[in-house]
Amino acid sequence: SGQAIVSAVTSGSRQYFLGTDSAPHDKRMKECSCGCAGIYSAPVALSLYAKVFEEAGALDKLEAFTSFNGPDFYGLPRNTSKTVLRRSPWKVPATYTYGLGVIVPMSTGNTLEWLPSDQPEE
């Protein structure tokens, strides 16, 4: 069940780690007769995971789930760059523009409570 998955990933066990499968296909390639599968989750993934971990009372375990457990499992170095999550509501845009078109993100139009930033805390 969904709750069993939430309990597992928020447990702090090092065997669980983030693995998004973001699919940033152009809107024209998704909304056609042989559309590309998947959903563009990259812009919202951390915000949505933060909500789940917060609701489970496990925000202190989010960093390991998103950043440490995966590289440790595969014997890879941990990233040195940082992403800060701030409790700051933001509205997911309808689209993101890139050189050749637009991409529609997951949760478009919704307001999320956690804002990811690459800027250090103030």
Commentary on this structure:
By secondary structure, this protein is an alpha+beta fold. The chain has one domain (2-76, 85-116). Helices cover 30% and strands 17% of the residues. It contains four helices and four strands. It has helices at 2-9, 27-30, 45-55, 62-74; strands spanning 84-91, 96-98, 101-103, 111-117. A two-stranded antiparallel ribbon has the order 1-4. A two-stranded antiparallel sheet has the order 2-3. Strand 2 and strand 3 form a beta hairpin. It is globular, with a radius of gyration of 16 Å. It starts with a helix and ends in a 5-residue tail after the last strand. The mean pLDDT is 94. Keywords: Hydrolase, Metal-binding, Pyrimidine biosynthesis, Zinc. InterPro entries: DHOdimr, Dihydroorotase_CS, Metal_Hydrolase.
Describe, in short, the structure shown.
This protein has about 120 residues and is of the alpha+beta class.
